[in-house]
Specification:
This protein is mainly α. Helix content is about 55%, strand content about 0%. The relative contact order is 0.06.
């Protein structure tokens, strides 16, 4: 299938759904877009950001897990 065929098939199926299910389908499609938009190349901030942890820094496992 090409993109146009997929679009037509999706529209055909959405037209047969009740409104609440059509809205749910739209939310799902939008979530797919957000998921793919969140990806970024590894090392994007390499050389631009740095941090250091003080040698006296202490945190328990429970404190770490609550953060």
């Amino acid at each position: 299938m090409n993109k146009t065929e997929i679009e037509q098939a999706v529209l055909k199926e959405i037209h047969t759904l009740p409104l609440d299910q059509a809205e749910e389908a739209l939310r799902f499609i939008l979530s797919l877009k957000r998921k793919s938009a969140k990806k970024r190349p590894l090392g994007l901030l390499k050389g631009k950001v740095e941090f250091a942890i003080d040698e006296n820094f202490k945190i328990t496992d429970d404190e770490f897990l609550q953060s």
